[in-house]
NO-binding membrane sensor protein with MHYT domain
Amino acid sequence: MVHHSYDYVLVLMSYVVSVLGSFTALRLMAGIQDIHDTTRRWKRLILASLVVGVGAIWAMHFIGMLALNMPVKVDYAPGLTALSAVVAVIACLIGLSLTSRGDHSRLNLLTAGTYMGIGVAAMHYMGMAAMRMPATTVYNGAITSLSILIAIVASVAALWMAYKRSSVLQSMFGALVMGLAVCGMHYVGMAAARFAVLGTPEVAEAHGIDSLYLGMLVFGVIVVMLLGVLIAGLRNREVFAIDS
């Protein structure tokens, strides 16, 4: 088995970007049930899905993957990595749309959260499958199942918070909790994986440095995008329901 460790700077970055993405999405969803125009509602839903899917979930996942240090060369299949981001956005759009019209019953939240959670878990394991390295990945079934359960529970909680009228301070607290939940799912999923070397591996002496730079780049790009959405929202109080 391949010994691995984590770069805790990147681990922290993964949490921060998830919190920022969660906060932005929560403010976008505040008061959406009061929007009766179908076009405006769907625009808001799509934007929120992009924010939470790419910003809060996928970016957290990718930076978290880069935080994994192993003594072998690791690359990522760009097509599958990009597809995993699309899956995350679609999963969030399904979950948000199912609960956007005011039906926040336990059954509907559970249904929407299950769809969303399974999609988030699929994104995670697609990202894992995108790893290209001289090793095979073996999963612990029980821990894998736990990670999927965490994804579903976190999604249900996220949907409940998304449509709960809340102040900016409450959204900040909710984002901190959502960030923990998203990171929890990811790192539990990573704990389920064991890597077995195939043949004589190519040692990646500078892999950690490359990963740090790439992680910082992804972090910077996503943070700038999220801050752009936040600034645009602050200029339009209606968008972020500032008075709620």
The CA atoms of residues 6 and 156 lie 29 Å apart.
